[in-house]
Amino acid sequence: MLPRKSIIPEEFALPALVSRIPRKPVFRDRVNKARFIAKSGACNLAHKNIREQGRFLQDVFTTLVDLKWRFTLVIFTMTFLCSWLLFAMGWWLVAFAHGDLDPNRKPVVEKCVTNVNSFTSAFLFSIEVQVTIGFGGRMITEQCPAAITVLILQNIIGLIINAVMLGCIFMKTAQSHRRAETLIFSRHAVIAVRNNRLCFMIRVGDLRKSMIINAAVRLQVVRKTTTPEGEVIPIHQIDVQTESAVAGNSIFLLAPLIICHVIDKDSPLYDLSAMELQCSDLEVIVILEGVVETTGITTQARTSYVTEEIQWGHRFVPIVTEEEGVYSVDYSKFGNTVKVATPRCSARELDEKPSILIQTLQKSELSHQNSLRKRNSMRRNNSMRKVNSMRRNNSALAVPKVQFLTPEGGPNLAVT
């Protein structure tokens, strides 16, 4: 049996009509990917399948400094214990070869090391020699040239071990990234209009009074790109210039500063609008370098901003005020931002059509005036209500008139 044809033509059916309705572009959520630089500044990079592990032993000192504290302390302890045990074995062999450990030896023959009668006493003497304690109960004599040779070797090797281990501990405690813990960045970056140009801005600050000398800020945009030849570059680093590029990016980090990048034709953000920025897959890396004033060691602080952490149409609130002749910084407002009038188009469109900025500012001014009018009208209404309520209260509190009747029957009005 053939299917019955519908009375409504197929071109006017519901599926056909739905297919012809223009659809708005749907922006899918950006797939969460790993950050290249964490907010704390740590590099989120894992090294795998390193076949030439011996290269790390060619620079032993740097390898020891880069190790975690628990491994460094274990190596520090084991190095001294092993050296003491090694030379304790040497002193025991010297005493054994000279016959100092023989219980039947003649007391006339002088020992190589006095009061070394066992391995335990040899171990204690090894510690005394290397650490230069010198309790006085055990000492070397001139009877054995071998003992003098062992003494010289232990002193030289002990000094080398002390220099390496103590230098490693000192470098770990005075590492430059410890100073970077007091260099802070704003939680979010902002994009707003400054001097009639779209600008990418962040805020940096130093919590210590000791300054960072020759401080410099560098910005980089990391994104996945594909070359015209089809080569995929997963981590393409693009340098971004800041406002102080003429002066070599050097800043005077006495108080918190706002680092500004003008989005011009050379910027990787030039073609991105507010909507496209949220859907793009890029990361802005901020690197702050300088020399610590107190130690003279170069330090570096890093952070990054992904698209979710970039606020379009916001501006940082001022946090530096002058109070009784002293500039005061309120760090509780360090990352606070406020909304400002900002075109949602890209910087390219803004350069091609400058009227967009004028229209945006005019709309912002009109909305600001309307809000002021509403506030003033609300204030007037509230004041009128207060006046009316006060009048009602005063009328309710007024003393009423009382009528008295005289004995003649005529009314006598009196107010009490």
Strand content: 15-25%
Query: What is the CATH topology classification name of the largest domain?
Result: Immunoglobulin-like
Helix content: 25-40%
Mean pLDDT: 79
Rg, rounded, reads 41 Å
GO cellular component, one term: monoatomic ion channel complex
Transmembrane segments: 71-94, 146-170
Domain Potassium channel inwardly rectifying transmembrane: 37-175
GO molecular function, one term: ATP-activated inward rectifier potassium channel activity
At a glance:
The protein has 416 residues and is an alpha+beta fold.
Q: What can you see in these coordinates?
A:
With 416 residues, the chain is α+β, with helices and mostly antiparallel strands. It is built from nine helices and 16 strands. The protein has helices spanning 14-20, 60-66, 69-98, 119-131, 145-173, 176-179, 274-279, 347-352, 355-397, and strands at residues 183-185, 189-194, 197-206, 212-226, 232-240, 250-251, 257-262, 282-292, 298-306, 310-312, 314-316, 320-323, 326-329, 337-339, 402-405, 411-414. Strands 1, 2, 3, 7 and 10 form a five-stranded mixed sheet that branches. Strands 4, 5, 6, 8 and 9 form a five-stranded antiparallel sheet that branches. Strand 12 and strand 13 (326-329) form a beta hairpin. It is elongated. Residues 1-7, 14-20 and 22-28 have low confidence and may be disordered.
Features:
Immunoglobulin-like, alpha+beta, 3 domains, 416 residues, 9 helices, Helix Hairpins, 16 strands, 5-stranded antiparallel β-sheet
